[in-house]
Amino acid sequence: MIFKKEKLRRTVTITKDVRDGILTYCKIHHPYEGILILRGKSKKGNVTIDGLIIPPFSHGGPTFAGFPHSFLPFDPSYVGTVHSHPSGTAQPSVTDLHNFFGFVSLIVQSPYEDDDIFAYDRDGNLLEITISQDKL
Length: 136
Ligand SMILES: [Zn+2]
Hints:
Blueprint: E1 11-15, H1 16-29, E2 35-43, E3 46-53, E4 78-85, H2 94-98, E5 104-109, E6 117-120, E7 126-127, E8 129-132
């Protein structure tokens, strides 16, 4: 028996409303980091995001925005987090990968325009984002 070690590449789909909500939230928090919980579904490696939740506990600072995962209520509709990088590069930091939560991590780089959102998996691989005009 041959085990194929094929990695499932996740695709990420977000609604236009959610995208706009994320960008606005990041702009409001600038120059500090903003962080939100992503709500949606994960099915066969495809993550769809149709909602945003402001974390119950969060602290923003110039270098790190995060929250202890123990503060997060368990909810199967929480598929990941999004946070901003006010410094202007969307590269995930070591801290980001350590604090990975869920299936996908979105990072938004300054100046938070439509093309400034990037999606990463747990290993820090860049994933493709599709923007859906419709409700998911
Ligand atoms: Zn970060």
